[in-house]
Amino acid sequence: MEFIDLKSQYRAYQTEIDRRIRTVLEHGRFILGPEIAELEAALADYVGVRHCITVASGTDALEIALRALEIGPGDEVITVPFTWISTAEAIALVGARPVFVDIEPVSYNIDLDRLEAAITPRTRALLPVSLFGQMPDYDRINAIAARHGLPVIEDAAQSFGATRHGRRSCGVTTIGSTSFFPAKPLGCYGDGGALFTNDDALADKMRAIRTHGGLQRHHHPLLGMNGRFDTLQAAVLLAKLPHFDAELERRRQLGARYTERLRPLLHLPHAVPEVLDGNTHVYAQYTIRVPNRDTVAQRLQAEGIPTAVYYPKCLHEQPVFASLGYRWGDFPVAERASREVLSLPMHPFLTEADQDRVIDALARALTAENSS
Fold first, then answer.
1. Measured distance CA(144)–CA(97) in Å, rounded
2. What would you measure as the largest C-alpha separation in the chain, in angstroms?
3. Global pTM value
4. Residue 46: domain span
5. Same domain for 180 and 231
6. Are residues 269 and 225 in the same domain?
């Protein structure tokens, strides 16, 4: 069984993917070829914003956003400790200090009751994460940001395609940032990412930073980077994009079915994903909470059921961020989640028969754990 089945997806769309790739091979414009502009227009339209800027990775996207906002040494950016390292890594790469705020236990997203207290005179941006596939309350986040004159960057690496009150992820903040890593809901066949904004000036700056700091060849008004998205990867996404909404609907069906079947089996608080009011969930990961997580995962592996842990450590536990001065116990909700979460196979090509195998194996693993 595959945890994420990219091979079945390729077989389903093989004719379109191969045709798109062949077109790039034939025209030979492998860097910023015509597929880049075509994809950016399609993605901007999908999200409902004026500008999409594709980039080389989701991590580059975050760094470019911070650079475009002129955030650097001496500045602070607020984010969460329960996320992939790139969220805080990008903050540190521009010389700023990541400031962590604990998550709330239902959605694993930032605890909005704690957010405003973390703002200081050095705060230059808010960088919430839309974890596992659904968005936090960005109306409330944007209102807090507006009171303090701060921009908001949505780290939507796991939530592309999700909505809140009908507005799409990546289209509700100053800048939206996402990833096209192969395992993401909309993934290419390598690294990739994108930025979204309605701000014309910010869009121009992000395009320039992406391409060594200039929009014209041999003219570099900004300090930039080589953050361009590959034309071949754009071709892959253009082939997949027409199928994306159908895949999201299938993810929602599978997520709801998991939740219905697993809720009676799991007894920890918030043990199954809950969809917040007004939200849709794209289930980039279907994540449950179980006691003795690692033992349960081993029992599932023995039955041929792959699992993953996002994430076994919080960011304040990582050695690279030891200098921030945080200690165990500073973020109890995130810390508990890191020791309990377990993600199950989830992708649009998961059959109900295989899903039943996962559920039945998990029931046996939990029974064995309870009797040991």
1. 20
2. 69
3. 0.97
4. 6-103+110-242
5. yes
6. no
